[in-house]
Amino acid sequence: MAFSLNPLVSAIEEPPISEAHSWLDGVSFTVEKPLIDLAQAAPGYPPEEGLRRFLATAVMEEATSRYTDIEGLPLLRQLLATDMSETYQGTVSPEQVLIAAGCNQSFYLTAMTLCRPGDAMLVVSPWYFNHRMTLDMLGVEPVALPARADNGFVPDPQDARRLMTDRIKAILLISPNNPTGAVYPEQVLQEFADLAAEQGIALIVDETYRDFLAPEVSRPHGLITRSGWDSHLIHLYSFSKVYSMTGYRVGAVVADPVLITQIAKVMDSLAICAPRIGQLAAIYGLQNLRDWRAGNRQVMADRVAAFTAALDAVESGYEIQSIGAYFAFLRHPFETSSSIIAPALAREAGLLTLPDTMFGGAGTHLRVAFANVDGAEMPEVASRLRQFEQDHAGAR
């Protein structure tokens, strides 16, 4: 190849999910012991039947193939603003909402709008790899804010305060977290919001998995009840997970209207608008699927309970150190790095998980994504983990 590449892009590591699936090249699984995919964070159930019927009709409409407003369909912005106002018991207006092509793009748009090359962003470690990849490609330094096992992988605002420099333009949090599953207490989020306001920077809260909090949690947090919340808080959201339509890629940025206007400029240059078909699906979901959404919240809670109970029952050396929404962060019992354990676990035990090294971790944990695994399969998952441990007892 004669031409040169952008070194910020060529330096990016291979996408982790693709790498994980490459471990299975040449490996065959049987009907009696099929592969159990615990790597991909995607719901295992299809979109609700009424939504599928709606989309089958909508795709035939001529208007479906046309662009929408850059900021998104006005009805969708209104419906999401109303939904968020009810969920957070605060006030959100349509002017504070921009619809993007998924939550990853929502973060990309936000990071590009806030940061120049050479700036920095405070990112909880272990981090979500797509966030890290985005910052690397933009030339923005991710400054690691440690989340520790002894604190349930909840970051400490005082650690963040000590890491502050003039180069840091935003603090990035994910709750419920990917990869650890940790749900950040409201008081912790309040302290981070106070720190961001004090420093004059943004607090970005990615709440892709907001709708899969435990059923007893009444609301994710009270930040949006604060007067002037949008002076420092930027909320990122995903419709794709909650309505099981990951192929449609619909997300949102909720922030100050002036910032939304600036983000819309970036949106116009990148994609013009989010796909209309996905926006129509999100409208249908907000208008019709409240009970279905609540039911899936309970499904995920049941899977959390089922995985916890199954692992307890086999009395293995694995330890769940954090769990919530779609994920469990599992400390493995081996001295060998998770970067070695995870491929071996996939090939030998038919359990596809991701090593924490893909998230900037130290090699001590595995991320188990159970969203696409039925609760009835959890005893089999636990049994295979225990058998793998016994087979490799010498590596402990």
Radius of gyration, Cα only, in angstroms? Answer: 21 Å
Q: pLDDT under 50 segments (min length 5)?
A: none
Strand tally is: 13
Describe the global form: globular
Kindly name the structural category.
alpha/beta
N-to-C span = 46 Å
Number of distinct helices: 14
Largest beta sheet: strand ordering: 2-8-7-6-5-3-4
Can you describe what's shown?
The protein is α/β, with parallel strands linked by helices and 396 residues long. It has 14 helices and 13 strands. The strands form three sheets. Strands 2-8-7-6-5-3-4 form a seven-stranded mixed β-sheet, with helices on both faces. The protein has a four-stranded antiparallel β-sheet with strand order 9-10-13-12. The protein has a two-stranded parallel sheet with strand order 1-11. Helix 3 (49-58) packs antiparallel against helix 11 and helix 5 packs across helix 10 (257-270). The longest helix has 25 residues, at 290-314. The radius of gyration is 21 Å and the shape is globular. The N and C termini lie far apart (46 Å).
What structural keywords apply?
single chain, 396 residues, alpha/beta, seven-stranded mixed β-sheet, four-stranded antiparallel β-sheet, 14 helices
